[in-house]
Design a protein that fits this description.
about 350 residues; 7-stranded mixed β-sheet; two-stranded antiparallel ribbon; 9 strands
């Protein structure tokens, strides 16, 4: 009888422990030295130029070439334009030109700064991070900046077939080679949050893709060194083939990482560089060919004199932030940034965006 009672007690104890494990498995662990729920809330962006604010100007001191740091973090960056409660801290770790290695945790420093995942792990101890937005991959195997340069060279040489003919067969392979690197970077972002005691459902992890800065509707008078030196066929390929294929690859990365996905591939349609007013660029969300003439006089700054070219401008970053903010407020697993009836970007669920 006593043995039976003892066995029943053990089963009851085991059952209670299992129930407790289920209860706390998705909550903050009581043994954490710092309880994330007791810390000030923050939203963090990591990745490369679109999130750093490249093209937005007025770059934060220390990120405009000082000590060879060219991260170009701008007050116009999307995280700084999100509609958030005043008590939420906005943190921008993204760095213009960053590759996936900049997010990995196995190397403390990458260039002039610490790895972004290392920085994130430190921040996660001091803030209750509610959202982490990641944009990375274009500077790896796709080499999007090199693609733009190659297309400009084709225009200059008046190559009859343009850059698209050279790229169209190799581009899918480049995107495919990028995917595991981007996935490893996103996994390290997850690991940084795990190390601070966060569980997957205690914050949002968003992977977003890229918008095309150029399109085939370039004004003829700007189709040159005055703005957009590209051949029409190359402009069409970049916007309608290259960027969407890159976006598809990053969508696969988001699925594999269990992250939400924001598709920017059509976000710039109708507002690309050189599609607006020839003199004021009104209506454009992306910079034209931009040269910092003063930088050309300095040997160290000269290589970065055209760094702002074909990135979102302040108006473009504001629109991207508008869409991102809408997406953060939903529970949709994926959405695309598309214009609403007033022409502003809005987050449309992917199921509806492809109809």
């Amino acid at each position: 009888m006593r043995a039976h009672k003892s066995k029943s007690l053990i089963l009851l104890l085991v059952g209670s422990l299992l129930a407790l494990a289920v209860l706390i498995s998705d909550q903050y662990l009581p043994s954490l030295p710092l309880q994330p729920k007791q810390l000030p809330a923050a939203v963090v962006t990591v990745g490369d130029s679109t999130l750093s604010g490249e093209g937005g100007g007025n770059y934060v001191a220390g990120t405009n070439g000082e000590n060879d740091n060219w991260c170009h973090r701008s007050p116009a960056a999307p995280v700084n334009q999100l509609r958030l409660p005043p008590e939420v801290t906005r943190i921008n770790l993204a760095c213009s030109g960053a590759r996936t290695e900049s997010l990995l945790s196995d190397q403390e420093f990458v260039g002039a700064e610490k790895s972004q995942s290392v920085q994130l792990a430190e921040l996660a101890q001091r803030y209750r991070i509610t959202d982490v937005v990641v944009q990375i991959g274009a500077n790896d195997d796709p080499g999007f900046t090199e693609v733009v340069n190659q297309c400009v060279e084709s225009w200059a040489r008046r190559a009859p077939q343009g850059c698209a003919t050279q790229l169209q067969d190799r581009w899918p392979q480049r995107v495919e080679r990028m995917e595991p690197k981007a996935l490893a970077a996103v996994h390290d972002i997850r690991a940084a949050m795990d190390s601070a005691g966060y569980t997957p459902t205690s914050y949002q992890l968003i992977v977003q893709s890229y918008a095309s800065p150029v399109g085939p509707e370039v004004r003829p008078e700007l189709q040159g060194l005055s703005g957009c030196p590209f051949q029409p066929s190359d402009l069409a390929w970049i916007r309608d083939v290259g960027v969407p294929q890159l976006s598809d690859g990053l969508h696969d990365v988001a699925r594999q990482a269990g992250a939400r996905f924001l598709d920017l591939s059509r976000a710039g349609h109708g507002h690309e560089a050189c599609t607006g007013d020839p003199r004021t660029a009104s209506g454009e969300w992306f910079t034209r060919l931009t040269v910092d003439w003063e930088a050309l006089k300095d040997e160290q700054r000269a290589p970065h004199a055209m760094q702002e070219s074909f990135h979102a401008n302040a108006a473009g970053h504001a629109q991207l932030a508008r869409c991102l903010g809408e997406f953060l407020a939903t529970t949709e697993p994926g959405a695309a940034c598309l214009p609403d009836e007033r022409g502003n970007l809005t987050a449309v669920p992917l199921a509806d965006a492809h109809r």
